[in-house]
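We were asked to recover a plausible sequence for a given structure. The inputs and outputs are reproduced exactly as logged, with field labels preserved.

PROBLEM: sequence recovery
POSITIONS: 653
GIVEN STRUCTURE:
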């Protein structure tokens, strides 16, 4: 499972050889996926042409997982291994969920989910493209546009949301965008074909209807960005090499990662991609829990253009497809630099057969600049420490866009989450000389549509234990008066979020707002409730109208923070099946109960909203845009936990 790819021979780094036995939280391996599907086929009437959507670890209850580990740092529990299986039967037009016990070789549950549209499978997406291009109405529409060679047309199936007509109710649908290119290394999005769309029934795998809204000429330019198409390349960069002659400072044992004081486990699912489990920090020999589980649980991209069909462009990349299955195989020196270790992941294809994404997760260390410093002017001495961070990342391609997800772990107890957005902006063709309020002209006759990206990051916190309370903290000025005669006073005002209705919050940078996740049942030596604070970065909310279909389906994007009590079944903020869902599922439904969230096992749902008004500089391929947030210890330690970081050995200081 651990691939060795290093700039130098890494055969003696001690990580090769026998892997530990399965840990309760290890993702399913290929053998387990195959066995789960086999057990299900043997014991239930699974149709031969059923499409397997996902076969994923059914995570054990929290009380069956030792966290922190009771002995040492490599706990291997003898636990029952179970698989969650989601499949679509196109003949019955039904979505099924099963839980399969691999340990007991039995199906624990098997049920249809009425009305549910599971995420689209890669097989369906591929077949949808094929039937679209085989449709005479599409070919006639292309001919009307002067496109004679359908081989140069790219079909992109999209989730249809709740926009299908009543005559299509109950059908499993996708709709298509079309793009043209003259040659294979042209930009795939440079020549959008305006106004020609197929609506496809994915169960029947047949085109239901074709809509032709009229012709707009193809933009003239190819938008190429490959190196041999962009003219002379710069030749003035000298080599920069990252050398770690003794190997990296982290240790990979199966899916367990140890680096500096950090101890955590990794997981991976078809829907969420990388998952962090049991994140803890070793403090004076004791591993103190920080987070039980963290993942990106939804990724929602609404577009601004109100015109017919353009208004349908709203992507739920997790609920409609899954970012695990969209994950890239990474390449050394390109995606990650230096002394890198990779983890491969196993997923199920549409037939339920396992397949591997090699090098799906990247682990490496980076110099992170300054950790801390002081020059003592009296003594003339300087103490300075370099910061090192552990980087755990994966990258997905969702049609036109790339999302690179990074979890950074720092020596001072900080965790940072960052997404780098790149790839190609979604385009439409403009008539010559025209512009639009809803996009930026990025090339002649080419409009890059305004849009937003919302990441719902599910943080199942466990700060020094499972019972936590969330406080909202705002800095506030103190009223001028006898206690504040000069008017300079300000203070942080801490307000507990006691119930779900109080815990639907938005960022407020003008008050320095942050959210403190504290353990009210414990005290540090200084008397603080041990806590981590969620420090938001720049973030926006959804601009879609509150009553619109997109807002109803993505209500989570109307707030930056939601807090719910932990419930194992509550994993996705727009519900389990956002594909074609009319809305209201997930966070808005659960939080109607207005459950108490104080001093209990809680989950934070942080919505990170990015506004993308495209720039001409985003074309033909977009330089990385960074968004993120931080989790910082705030009273978790009694002092700077990175005092013991040694000075750099080669330094003069
Ligand atoms: Ni964007």
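RECOVERED SEQUENCE:
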């Amino acid at each position: 499972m651990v691939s060795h790819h290093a700039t130098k021979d890494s055969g003696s780094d001690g990580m090769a050889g026998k892997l530990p036995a399965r840990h309760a939280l290890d993702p399913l391996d290929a053998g387990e996926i195959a066995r789960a599907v086999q057990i299900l086929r043997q014991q239930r009437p699974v149709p031969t042409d059923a499409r397997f959507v996902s076969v994923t670890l059914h995570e054990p209850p929290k009380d069956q997982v030792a966290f922190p580990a009771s002995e040492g740092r490599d706990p291997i529990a003898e636990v029952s291994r179970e698989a969650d299986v989601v499949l679509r039967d196109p003949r019955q037009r039904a979505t099924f969920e099963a839980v399969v016990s691999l340990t007991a070789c039995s199906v624990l549950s098997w049920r249809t989910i009425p009305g549910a549209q599971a995420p689209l499978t890669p097989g369906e997406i591929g077949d949808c493209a094929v039937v679209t291009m085989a449709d005479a109405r599409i070919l006639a529409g292309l001919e009307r546009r002067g496109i004679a060679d359908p081989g140069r047309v790219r079909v992109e199936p999209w989730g249809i949301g709740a926009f299908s007509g009543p005559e299509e109710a109950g059908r499993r649908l996708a709709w298509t965008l079309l793009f043209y290119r003259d040659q294979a290394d042209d930009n795939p999005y440079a020549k959008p074909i305006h106004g020609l769309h197929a609506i496809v029934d994915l169960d029947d795998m047949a085109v239901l209807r074709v809509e032709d809204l009229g012709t707009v000429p193809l933009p003239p330019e190819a938008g190429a960005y490959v190196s041999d198409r962009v003219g002379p390349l710069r030749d003035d960069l000298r080599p920069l090499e990252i050398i770690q002659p003794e190997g990296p400072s982290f240790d990979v044992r199966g899916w367990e990662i140890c680096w500096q004081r950090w101890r955590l486990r990794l997981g991976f699912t078809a829907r969420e991609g990388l998952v962090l489990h049991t994140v803890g920090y070793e403090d004076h020999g004791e591993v103190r829990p920080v987070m039980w589980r963290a993942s990106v649980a939804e990724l929602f991209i609404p577009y601004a253009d109100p015109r017919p069909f353009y208004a349908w462009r709203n992507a739920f990349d997790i609920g409609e497809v899954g970012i695990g299955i969209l994950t890239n195989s990474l390449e050394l020196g390109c995606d990650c630099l230096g002394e890198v270790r990779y983890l491969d992941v196993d997923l199920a294809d549409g037939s339920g057969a396992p397949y591997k994404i090699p090098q799906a997760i990247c682990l490496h260390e980076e110099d992170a600049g300054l950790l801390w410093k002081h020059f003592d002017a009296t003594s003339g001495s300087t103490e300075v420490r370099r910061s090192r961070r552990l980087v755990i990342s994966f990258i997905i391609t969702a049609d036109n866009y790339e999302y690179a997800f990074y979890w950074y772990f720092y020596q001072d107890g900080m965790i940072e989450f960052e997404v780098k957005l790149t790839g190609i902006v979604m385009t439409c063709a403009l008539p010559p000389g025209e512009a639009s309020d809803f996009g930026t002209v990025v090339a002649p006759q080419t409009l890059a549509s305004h849009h937003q990206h919302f990441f719902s990051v599910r943080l199942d916190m466990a700060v020094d234990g499972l019972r936590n309370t969330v406080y909202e903290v705002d800095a506030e000025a103190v009223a001028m008066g006898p206690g504040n005669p000069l008017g300079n006073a300000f203070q942080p005002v801490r307000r507990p979020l006691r119930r779900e209705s109080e815990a639907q919050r938005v960022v407020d940078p003008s008050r320095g707002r942050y959210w403190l996740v504290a353990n009210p049942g414990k005290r540090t030596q200084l008397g603080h409730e041990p806590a981590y604070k969620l420090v938001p970065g720049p973030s926006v909310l959804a601009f879609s109208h509150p009553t619109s279909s997109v807002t109803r389906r993505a209500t989570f994007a109307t707030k930056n923070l939601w807090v719910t009590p932990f419930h194992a079944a509550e994993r996705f903020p727009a519900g389990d099946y956002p594909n074609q869902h009319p809305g209201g599922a997930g966070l808005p439904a659960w939080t109607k109960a207005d459950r108490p969230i104080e001093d209990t096992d809680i989950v934070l749902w942080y919505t990170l909203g990015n506004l993308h008004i495209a720039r001409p500089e985003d074309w033909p391929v977009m330089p990385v845009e960074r968004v993120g947030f931080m989790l910082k210890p705030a009273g978790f330690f009694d002092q700077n936990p990175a005092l013991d970081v040694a000075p750099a050995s080669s330094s003069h200081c």
